[in-house]
Amino acid sequence: MVETLPNAVRIADGASIRWDRVPKTGAGSIPAIAPGLAVEILSEANPSAEMERKLCEDFAAGTWMVWYVERATCSARVFSAPDRREQVVEGGGLRGGEVLDVCELPLGQLLAAVEFPAERSSQQ
Length: 124
Fold this sequence. Notes:
- By secondary structure, the chain is α+β, with helices and mostly antiparallel strands.
- Helices cover 23% and strands 31% of the residues.
- The strands form three sheets. The chain has a five-stranded mixed sheet with strand order 3-4-5-6-7. It has a two-stranded antiparallel sheet with strand order 1-2.
- The model is unreliable at 119-124 (pLDDT under 50).
């Protein structure tokens, strides 16, 4: 959980924050920082207008890259700015660029590792 803008706390499905960007805060406080990379696993519960707003707010707060992963289509959108995106299809890989020190994360590997709420409730 990070405070990306004043009075706006975000909990992305996944995030990466470089150690040199982590502020020194007291225990229990919410750090005022934007992640270098924010990852959102999209579902029908995510209205496109809301995700567009979050995307703009994330970049305004200083996030460098956003991945929107869509399990239903086995695809992802990689944003380096609100108006600059790359489409990644099944079999492709997600690149972290200068934000994440990894050459490429296979999209299928990410999808296989994520537990989705519908699966969690059906297993209980």
